[in-house]
């Protein structure tokens, strides 16, 4: 039972960062399509969130929640 619960949390909390509209695109495509948005990311990349995605800060909060749940 405990192993199943941990596995469910793993799937929810330990996944790649959601890059939203940037996902699956090359750096060149990202710059061509979303150059204006990417300029904002250069000023505060830790808290910047791509449209439809999540910031690095939010991704780290997910991981932190998982680690807390193991206690």
What does this structure look like?
- The protein has helices spanning 2-13, 27-43, 56-69.
- With 71 residues, it is an all-alpha fold.
- The longest helix is centred in the middle third of the chain and has 17 residues, at 27-43.
- It is elongated and about 45 Å long.
- The mean pLDDT is 87.
N- and C-termini, Cα separation: 16 Å
Structural class: mainly alpha
Question: Unreliable runs, pLDDT <50, ≥5 residues?
Answer: none
Q: How much strand content do the residues show?
A: under 5%
Number of strands: 0
- Look at the structure and give the mean pLDDT: 87
Oligomer kind: single chain
Main beta sheet: strand number and arrangement? none
What is the element string, with H for helices and E for strands? HHH
Question: Whole-number radius of gyration?
Answer: 15 Å
Helix content: 55-70%
The helix tally amounts to: 3
- Envelope shape: elongated
Q: Helix and strand layout, with pairings?
A:
Layout: H1 2-13, H2 27-43, H3 56-69
Quick gist of this model?
The chain is mainly α and 71 residues long.
Please describe the structure with a list of short key phrases separated by commas or semicolons:
71 residues; mainly alpha; elongated
């Amino acid at each position: 039972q405990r192993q199943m619960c941990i596995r469910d949390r793993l799937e929810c909390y330990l996944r790649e960062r959601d890059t939203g509209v940037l996902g699956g695109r090359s750096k060149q495509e990202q710059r061509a399509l979303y150059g204006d948005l990417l300029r904002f990311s250069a000023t505060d990349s830790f808290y910047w969130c791509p449209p439809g995605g999540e910031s690095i800060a939010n991704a780290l909060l997910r991981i932190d929640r998982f680690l807390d749940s193991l206690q």
